[in-house]
Amino acid sequence: MSALAWSLPALPLVAGGFLLVGRRWVTDRVAPVVGVGVGVVVLGLALWAAFARPAVRFRLFEGVPAGLAVDGLSAVMVVVVAVVALAVLVYAAGMVLGARFFGLMLVFVGAMLVTVTATDLALLLMGWEVMGAMSYALIGFWWRDAWRVEAADVAFLTTRTGDLGLYLAAGCALAGTGTLELGGLAGAGGGWRDLVAGGVVLAALGKSAQLPFSFWLSRAMAGPSPVSALLHSATMVAAGAYLLLRVSPLLEATGWAASVVAWVGALTALLLGGVALAQRDLKQLLAASTCAQLGFMVLAAGVGGLAGGTVHLVAHAAVKSLLFLCAGAWLTALGTKDLGELSGAARRYRVVGVTFGVGALALAGFPPLSLWFTKDAVLAAAAEKSPWLYAVGLAAGVLSAGYAAKALFAVWRPGGRAGERVGVLEKVPLVVLAVAAVVLGVLGVPQVWGAWGRLLGDASAPLPGVVELVVSGVLAVVVVGVSARWRVGEVRWAEQWFYLERAAGLVVARPVVALARGLARFDDRVVDGGVRAAASTGRALASVADRRIEPRVDGVVTALGAGARRLGSAARRPQTGQVHTYYAQAAVLFAVLVVVVLLVG
User: What percent of the chain has pLDDT above 70?
Assistant: First the structure.
């Protein structure tokens, strides 16, 4: 079974790498076939893994084991990732995007599968990083448009800021436990556990676009619609919520992290619901609603609602992927995503319109569709912890009905103009996802819910009561009905996402840039100036030595040479070659020696 654990993420990684390396030789017709074919095989492997539960362990570093494994939670995630990826790849096959697009998408899928099956922080971090890099490349896919590249930069830098927390968590986990195993994080001793939890929370909130990081998801809408459907509604942004659900024992063990996570999730669901309600751009409305719905999953992680948070993640993946693909179909056919210009779009494109209607009603919490129950499953867990959390979550649910209805009635309103045809390949995934959005409501059946809880190891997960379900269902119906006649006015501060990006620029980006400029000036003026001064001083000393010291030294050397030459000349004079001269010299020498001996004696 270890081969299955390896092959599940390896296949899309290798295939994606092949398309990226050989994209010059892969035609626009072949690339979609490869992408969809790999997607089909990955779905088959994911279903096999969900039942077989493969695992593989190995030593990544000395004394630090690592591994990939499929348990209850990751079994759900690998199937969700594979299903949504295949639907998006089939949809993208009807567009002219080329080998580079499909290569990036497959590498992303492989990295996401590594992330959800990793049993330790090291492998999870590897998948996490590759996933972020592919997201950056896909948001800025049309790189000739400067504004898209800028949007990719903002999204990448924002998520990278949060990702630093995962590095902190890994280092502190190794110091506090001697291992990087996810299951052992709660056992970290002393203050290490708090640092690990803080790092994980920071990384997860950044990845899932929760407050105060939410604005990056608005920028991510610059990418192609299939990118929004896969990365920024069903997989990448869900990775943060998944991580928090995975380490919920760690959050609970700290005594503070669980409460922080729960309240951040609840407030994001409420406030970003208001942002969605104020949007006039369909993709921006869906992006803000993604932040809000992810808030429910984060809330579930904070209150220990593993079953509720996971079921909401699954249903939201189907619903939001469907809505983004519908928005993409209209954008391609009509050239607009402005709600005011999409009047009548659902009437002219009936398949797209009907499937969008199903997704919008599910997003609104309209009974008996999927998100109606899954949202209340989260709220049931929240109610056991705090009535205030339940109240905030219920208010966020009311807002979700409002923004979903706003989008629904905008596209079904009479009027508008005709556009290009929507192809069959674009329609097939819409129908499949719409069916999933309806069928997943079966999880609300008590027997099915019990099996779901046992699958995830959360057998005691609370089932929403009849009263709670009726209340939320009635509220959704009322809000949808009222929205048919009443339109929300423009709220500038909400439409601009509470100016979160501007605030981040003022509080973080500008001070960092100012510090960098100050350090650059210090380097230019002080460090480089010191180096230049040292060089100038060296040149000046050399010049002085050349003019004053060196001539004197040369004079001494010259004098020594002259003296040596004179001594040599004097020494050569006795060397006449005549024997009687040498005898005379020897006699004189002996006479001198005799005198010296007599004097000494």
Answer: 92
